[in-house]
Specification:
mainly alpha
């Protein structure tokens, strides 16, 4: 499949956005002190990590 430059750029932006979200959530899970927010993160974090098993 051939992609145009702007399509590759958009794909890269989306991929980096996903990586950034996962990285931030993993960091916050280790450092957040608000229990309600931590529960939300614990519930949502696994949804951002694909399971390829």
């Amino acid at each position: 499949m051939k992609l145009a430059v702007h399509e590759l750029y958009g794909l890269n932006e989306r991929a980096m956005s996903c990586v950034n979200s996962i990285t931030n959530m993993a960091y916050m899970l280790q450092h957040v002190q608000d229990l309600a927010f931590k529960k939300i993160l614990e519930r949502h974090f696994p949804l951002h990590i694909p399971d390829y098993s």
